[in-house]
Design a protein that fits this description.
46% strand, OB fold (Dihydrolipoamide Acetyltransferase, E2P), 144 residues
Length: 144
């Protein structure tokens, strides 16, 4: 059995580039930034950011270009694809992309227009609570 599946949650790091194929199919691409934080052996906070090239097709591309912009929080579910091509100088070039198969948009920020609402996403400095097995969860406590 084979599986090529990726889930990424991050912020859009570049403007969304929307194009159409010669057959009229919509396609967009953008860079998605993901970060991780940890403490090193000396207790110093460390952070590492990775940038992923995302490609969306058809209606997904149209929705992304209409509702998302640089800085938007998004979750992408898709697959990894490697491509190669020859550039204008004749050099072989390679890229790795995430072909998005579904996406979930994060909360709309006040900078994107519209009414500002408290975000259910915790800031980077807040601790996310750990729910142990057996803890009661009240449906009213879920922020969405």
């Amino acid at each position: 059995m084979n599986l090529n599946k990726v889930f990424l949650i991050g912020r859009i790091a570049t403007d969304i580039e929307m194009k159409s194929t010669p057959s009229g199919q919509s396609v967009c691409s953008f860079s998605l930034a993901t970060s991780r934080k940890w403490k090193d052996k000396n207790g110093q906070s460390q952070e590492d950011s990775q940038f992923h090239r995302i490609v969306l097709w058809a209606r997904l591309a149209e929705i992304a270009s209409q509702f998302l912009s640089k800085g938007s929080l998004i979750m992408i579910e898709g697959r990894i694809q490697n491509r190669s091509w020859e550039d204008k100088s004749g050099n072989k070039r390679y890229t790795t992309e995430i072909i998005g198969e579904s996406m979930q948009m994060g909360p709309k920020s006040s900078s994107q227009g519209g009414e500002s609402k408290p975000s259910p996403i915790k800031s980077e400095d807040e601790e996310i609570p750990i729910i142990e097995d057996g803890d009661e969860i009240d449906i009213k406590d879920i922020p969405f």
